[in-house]
Design a protein that fits this description.
Elements lengths: L7 H7 L17 E6 L4 E8 L7 H12 L7 E8 L2 H17 L12 E6 L6 H14 L3 E6 L7 H5 L6 E3 L2 E3 L1 E5 L2 E6 L15 H13 L8 E5 L7 H8 L3 E7 L3 H16 L3 E10 L1 E2 L5 E2 L6 H9 L3 E6 L2 H9 L9 H17 L9 H4 L3 H7 L1
Parallel strand pairs: 2-3, 4-10, 4-11, 5-9, 5-10, 11-12, 12-15
Antiparallel strand pairs: 1-2, 6-7, 8-9, 13-14
């Protein structure tokens, strides 16, 4: 492919699009061969692939569109896919090899593992409940799911997941608490395993962020297929730390139908993009309630999720109905995602979408890996 204009503002956003197999961004890898914005506000991005018919093609295109959504002056995104020439492929191999060598050894989370941060603009919208149920639903599909409770001061995941007991250490690393779910497994780190449930933590921002970094860097996450991060509500600086430490992180925004919740959630989305995190989509929680007679009631209004998705130029991934099973399950540590309820079905469908389309686990699809199948062995021998 012939390199064309490279617009700096577009490249800055594309720096957040990570190749899911190599763990490096597509700009660094030299896969962006063109990036421009015309006077009509049409951003055109040319991507060089390593093979014809690459299975990652659709995911890369989706991630590029997500990265450029909301960029000033852009009203439409056109993604053109082509092939890298032999010289560019060789350069990509060299860059990928050096990136693998230079990657920080302080975390056991490979760059190929999808990291999903679940955030919200405000508290009380069910963000932690969505995190817990998404984790359970993914594990029920046979995956090993790591969960970090980054809402350090408002930890609730141990109760939501029905887990308790102290964290242990082995080989100088924290060992996450483990719970089998069907053919899969949950591995969870939370301040709730280190402090009493009713104990308030009198910690300020820097200490809270250090705790989250320790959860990421000092815990043993070997063997996980996914990492979910339950963020503090609002516009904290935890997402910025995630962007630096785990550049493959994507954000799922949880909101409720009211306009007020939508507007504050939009701020969280804006912060994520400023921190170079992709906003993957919106989850509307506490949607309409359907009574036993089949009548639907919009208890908290309607349309907040769809409006937020439109505002952020992303998809509305799920609408989880208001369901007593969610509240009852939260109190008892029994996930609604495993129940045959409207909420349970919506949460399982969200997990299916994540696992098959939005963020397939390592090995589920790939083309770069086949081109660079010896990369890992080369790095190990170096």
């Amino acid at each position: 492919m012939v390199t064309t204009t490279l617009d700096a503002s577009v490249l800055a956003r594309l720096g957040g699009v990570v190749d899911p197999e190599l763990g490096a961004d597509i700009v660094t890898l030299g896969m962006v061969t063109g990036a421009s914005i015309d006077e009509a506000g049409i951003a055109t991005v040319a991507i060089g692939l390593t093979t014809v018919g690459c299975p990652l093609r659709a995911r890369l295109e989706r991630d590029v569109r997500a990265a450029l959504a909301g960029l000033d002056g852009v009203r439409e995104v056109v993604v053109e896919m082509g092939l890298l020439d032999p010289a560019a492929k060789a350069a990509l191999m060299d860059i990928a090899r050096r990136a693998a060598q230079d990657r920080s050894p302080t975390t056991t989370i490979p760059g190929t593992v999808p990291v999903l941060a679940i955030g919200s603009g405000k508290g009380g919208v069910g963000k932690s409940s969505v995190t817990a149920n998404l984790g359970v639903a993914l594990a029920a599909r046979g995956h090993v799911v790591g969960i970090i409770d980054a809402d350090v001061g408002g930890f609730s995941l141990p109760r939501l997941l029905g887990m308790s007991g102290p964290l242990a250490a082995k080989g100088g690393r924290l060992v996450p608490r483990s719970k089998p779910v069907g053919e899969g497994e949950l591995r969870v780190v939370s301040m709730g395993f280190l402090a009493e449930e009713a104990q308030a933590l009198l910690w300020r921002g820097l200490i809270l962020n250090k705790a989250v970094q320790q959860f990421i860097e000092d815990a043993d996450w070997t063997g996980i297929d996914y990492l979910l991060v339950d963020l503090p509500p609002g516009t904290s600086d935890v997402p910025m730390g995630l962007a630096r430490t785990l550049p493959q992180t994507g954000l799922l925004l949880v909101t409720t139908p009211p306009l007020a919740a939508q507007l504050v959630a939009a701020r969280a989305g804006d912060l994520a993009r400023r921190a170079n995190l992709r906003v993957l989509g919106v989850i509307e929680n506490m949607s309409s309630f359907v009574c036993e007679h089949g009548t639907s009631y919009e208890l908290f209004g309607a349309g907040g999720g769809a409006r937020l998705a439109e505002q952020l130029h992303v998809d509305l991934l799920a609408s989880v109905p208001f369901d007593p099973a969610l509240g009852a399950g939260a109190d008892e540590g029994e996930a609604a995602a495993l129940t045959d309820t409207a909420a349970g079905r919506a949460l399982r469908e969200l997990a299916r979408l994540v696992a098959t389309e939005l963020a397939p686990p390592p090995g589920a699809q790939g083309c770069t890996a086949r081109l660079l199948d010896a990369l890992e062995r080369v790095v190990e021998r170096a």
